[in-house]
Amino acid sequence: MENKQTTKYAPGFEDAIYKTWEESKKFAGTPDGRKAFSIAIPPPNVTGRLHMGHALNNTLQDILIRSAKLRGMNVKWAPGTDHGGIATQNVVEKELAREGKNRLDMGREEFLRRVNEWKQLYGGSILEQLKKLGCACDWDNIHFTMDETCSRAVTEAFVRLYEEGKIYRGHRLINHCVRCGTALSDIEVEYKDEMGKLWYIRYPVAGEKGKWLVVATTRPETMLGDTAVAVNPEDARLAAFVGKTLILPLTGRKIPVVADSAVEAAFGTGAVKVTPAHDFTDFDIGVRQKLATIKVIDEKGTMTPLAGAEFAGLNRYEARKKVCAMLEEQGFLEKTEELKHSVSVCYRCGEAIEPMLSLQWFLEMKELAAPAIKALDDGRVRFYPGHFQKPFLNFLGEIRDWCLSRQIWWGHRLPVYYCRDCQSRSSGEEAGVIVSAEKPSKCPVCGSADIFQDPDVLDTWFSSGMWPFEVFGWPEKTPELEYYYPTSVLVTGHEILYLWVARMLMMGIKFAGDIPFSDVYIHGIVRDRHGKKMSKSLGNTIDPLKVTSKYGVDSLRYSLTKQAVPGHDLLAAEENFIASRNFMNKISNAAVVVEREGFEAVVDMAKAESLADRWIVSEFSSFIKSAEDAIDSYDLARYARVMWEFFWGSFCDWYLEILKLRSGGISAGIVRRIFRETLI
């Protein structure tokens, strides 16, 4: 028989095969009597193209989906994209800046039109990229976190929580990003170590000439908003100062010395300045000690008039320089030390966070966290690997109220309205507030029609937290929701355990009445060949589709899977792609042998007669068991390894070589079936 097949792996056929699968609805899921296996895809942000992390995450999900389908389960992998909130708005703003435009000049309506154009372009592109990666998603069930279904779900959840008294509006200290111009939740803040300075400042004791209390601080500009100095009540060195009055340098304002257990006696001199409007610990001290709050830095990072005429209008860093210079000139600066310390920064843009007293919307979390903690303690939710569970439980146990409101334009607008007439008669935080799924025609209190909507949007993680049940139609009790929820497994990276996984767990139990998934499979980060985290700024990012165009989709998928030890990072190195392509070549070569020899598949492998046939059947059975065990324990690196060992070692290097030595080269027909089933 003439051999017309190439012996090298030719990836060009992959698109054609995928198109056949898609057109034949191989991936569509409809409820029936079989056991369900479902995954709600971690929706990629519509910020641009997919990266290697997406390639890894979706490859692992695809393996789980296809394995479940092979075992006869009714599978549904619900795909979709996330609007991305701050991340997407920042990307579009950068694009506009290149055109010499900014969103404030454009206005909200025009800016949102541009963001929607971006979403249409990249949202569709992302879905096509997932197809290029071979993902077996149900493409008849695509969602976007701001589509009609998801928007209705988000509004419904917010209104319910407000009516239950769990969502409230209040003045509280929040994390504010000056660059993004918005509040952030506690877990949207990252920390980086950097070298800074520790300034030691003399605070004169009122009425005691020549006597002062030295205070150490890393932020001298905020001293202009100090309302006390605090010491630890157990610190005998400073006990005599408690109850005395100090003169705040540069301002002449009098402030008290208070005793508070939050003070770390070992830091600096043991005495700390208390600025309740600009520090979380200070805010708590201020509440306990009934101190005033003086906001000296505004939302743009500019000093306010309350900072004093000499500083008002300066940005916070200019003010720092001027404060330090004046302290030194007036003899209040005792010394300065170099200090390595941790600085809080925005998780999206890297700008230093400004703690700030602000009027925002919050969600009480303790009550929502309790059933999530119980689900983990009862073993209904399991982590793979298990060592992630303890810190996750610690986070839930210490959870703080969630700041929901964001001062950006792209996102779910708060379903909150205000009556101007009611607000004009009262200055209370709840004055004129109307929370409603639809804009009311008039105020339910006074009947006024002068109603306007809150300009803020919801934190993007609020809608993302509802993803596992909103993709199946919640709040409607759809057949899909009843059948496919809870989902079977969540595959995710460890960097969003608190941002996303915790929210999904709490929201799922609260609104859908059950955990959103039973298993959480946590993979590592894809790094470059040197182990560095990939980023555009370092210029070491790798486009997965460029890899597939050179080596093929299966080569990329296999190279990632064989390194996917749960919880461990992996490398995107060319040598890994080459090794995986060589494995694909081995499979292609084996296919040539099978076709050339004309092997026919037997129906019953138990009828194998020759010693070689019985041996390979035994090896194949062991391989199938090992592969299924690896998949069931979410050790897909082991699954890839046993596949390599069986196919390359047992099947190709031994069994096929034995067959070549047989008279006429004909076997009992085991080879074709094993070859076919191994590939499946």
Keywords:
single chain; 680 residues; alpha/beta; Rossmann fold; Isoleucyl-tRNA Synthetase, domain 2; 3 domains; 4-stranded antiparallel β-sheet; 4-stranded mixed β-sheet; 21 helices; 25 strands; 40% helix; elongated
Outline of the structure:
With 680 residues, the protein is an alpha/beta fold.
Characterize the structure shown.
- With 680 residues, this protein is an alpha/beta fold.
- The chain folds into 3 domains: 262 residues, HUPs (Rossmann fold); 168 residues, Valyl/Leucyl/Isoleucyl-tRNA synthetase, editing domain (Isoleucyl-tRNA Synthetase, domain 2); 82 residues, no CATH class.
- The protein is built from 21 helices and 25 strands.
- The protein has a 4-stranded antiparallel beta sheet. Strands 10-11-9-12 form a 4-stranded mixed beta sheet, covered by helices on one side. Strands 8-7-13 form a 3-stranded antiparallel beta sheet, with helices on one face.
- Helix 2 links the parallel strand 1 and strand 2.
- The chain is elongated.
- The chain starts with 13 loop residues before the first helix and ends with a helix.
Helix content: 25-40%
- The domain count comes to 3
Q: Estimate the strand proportion.
A: 15-25%
The global form is elongated
Structural class: alpha/beta
